[in-house]
């Protein structure tokens, strides 16, 4: 993590930074945010209020109304402002949700967060206040091509016992780029309701925004689902804005946690985005700028991998169905993913070794230790160059050099 942070902060041009989760700077999207800043400044009174007045801990009410209306119009969901809480980024939303729904309770009971598929988002790993916080499951692996695979939830194994406080999935998944099918999500929704626990769906990359989803899926929400959004992958990570869409009782708890830990949230992200939700322009921004941009990046990266890697090698790329990453599995890799990371770092390429994404599921460790995550959000030349060096280094590793 230190390596990744340092590489981004100093913008070292000798480092091919395929490791981080930073979204791309997309010119058409940057233009929209610049224009929004100008509009805000032109409306002096509003601008002064955005900067000069605390929002309530739950978030800005105009933003909540705008988002509720947008979700009603897009999907017909029965969502109101009472279902929406803002947090300081999605990361903070997960810290609140996990420790609200799992961990140690006042009566001494302990509950865990169930992760239906591990590898799962690295950012969850250390968020539990207390040990033994997650119960994860290794997925079924479906081979979808000579060098392609896809994870499926292994429903035969999943057990939602009384020690489970909530089920959580990222969809699209960071790190794998997997998008759980509608049938899988419906199934998880059913078993969560039967067990009387919420299903948390981390929509940091999902529809309707930022819409970095390359397959045709149906977003879902109901009173038992906690759906989280983030403005980060809309190109606004600096505004630190996360959104929790949930039943009012959970929303109230999240607002109370914000009040205690941070008093209020940043106002700028909500103020920038509100008019796009009110007008519906968000839909065209996603369809015209964001989704095609990342889809093209994903296709390029897959093509460069196919060109650079020796076909006889036992490598597999997870189906790229969304998010900013490709997830590569080197079956039978003779060294650990961490050792591969070090060798790549020495050659100026930063990736994230797979073992960081395996937590709460010891049966996933060996597989994850043969995997790496690479981001395709950086400039094409950086991604292509990084992939070429990766292929060369992996070939050397398999050859025992
Ligand atoms: C799956 C997932 N969830 C949540 C987050 C948190 O994002 P942020 O705190 O910037 O909203 C990220 C960030 O990359 C992510 O990949």
Question: Topology of this structure?
Answer:
Elements: H1 2-10, E1 16-17, H2 27-42, H3 44-52, H4 61-75, E2 84-87, H5 90-101, E3 103-104, E4 110-115, E5 134-136, E6 140-145, E7 148-152, E8 164-170, H6 182-195, E9 199-202, E10 225-230, E11 242-245, H7 248-261, H8 268-279, H9 281-308, E12 315-318, E13 325-330, H10 337-346, E14 349-350, E15 352-353, H11 365-368, E16 371-375, H12 380-398
The chain binds pyridoxal-5'-phosphate.
Pyridoxal-5'-phosphate binds next to helix 5.
β content, as a range? 15-25%
Helix content: 40-55%
Q: Describe the global form.
A: globular
Write down the overall mean pLDDT.
Answer: 96
Class inferred from helices and paired strands:
alpha/beta
Give helix and strand order, one letter per element, not per position: HEHHHEHEEEEEEHEEEHHHEEHEEHEH
Number of strands: 16
* Uncertain runs: none
Cofactors and ligands present? Answer: pyridoxal-5'-phosphate
* Number of DSSP helical runs: 12
Could you explain the architecture of this structure?
The protein is of the alpha/beta class. Helix content is 40%, strand content 17%. The protein contains twelve helices and 16 strands. It has helices at 2-10, 27-42, 44-52, 61-75, 90-101, 182-195, 248-261, 268-279, 281-308, 337-346, 365-368, 380-398, and strands at residues 16-17, 84-87, 103-104, 110-115, 134-136, 140-145, 148-152, 164-170, 199-202, 225-230, 242-245, 315-318, 325-330, 349-350, 352-353, 371-375. The strands form three sheets. Strands 2, 3, 4, 5, 8, 9, 10 and 11 form an eight-stranded mixed beta sheet that branches. A six-stranded mixed beta sheet has the order 6-7-12-13-16-15. Helix 6 (182-195) links the parallel strand 8 (164-170) and strand 9. Helix 4 runs parallel beside helix 8, helix 5 (90-101) crosses helix 7 and helix 9 (281-308) packs parallel to helix 12. The longest helix has 28 residues, at 281-308. It is globular and about 65 Å long. The structure holds pyridoxal-5'-phosphate (PLP). The site of pyridoxal-5'-phosphate has 14 residues, from helix 5.
